[in-house]
Amino acid sequence: AIANSSFYVANTRYVFGDLKTWGWIVTLIGVVEICVALGVWVRAQWARWTGVGIAALNAIAQLVFIPAYPWLALVVFTLDVLVIYGLVAHGRSLEEG
Question: Most buried of the four, 37, 44, 65, 91, by CB within 10 Å?
């Protein structure tokens, strides 16, 4: 989406911005998600709730990204919902472990 590749659907319409803008937004969210994932891996409490927030933000971004590549956006949205569930439902067991 950033490099104007032919992988994504061209001439899609967005509420604001264009495909390149959303490509950068999703890339920046992904970088933050990697940092938070490292925090979850070392069992930092701040990373658990930050991960819930960032996964929710990415889920919203993926819903807006649907016009560019619908199936990929829906798969990533589903994974975000599973990540949120995992961090909320099983986070307490991480604290005790």
Answer: 65
CA angle 93, 88, 74 (to 5 degrees): 130
- Residues in Cβ contact with 55 at an 8 Å cutoff, skipping those fewer than 6 apart: 33, 80, 83, 84, 87
Q: Which two tokens stand for residue 51?
A: 């991960």
pLDDT at 67 (0 to 100): 79
Residue pLDDT, tens place only, 47-88: 888 999 999 999 998 888 787 778 988 999 999 999 999 989
* CA atoms 7, 65, 76, 27: torsion sign: positive
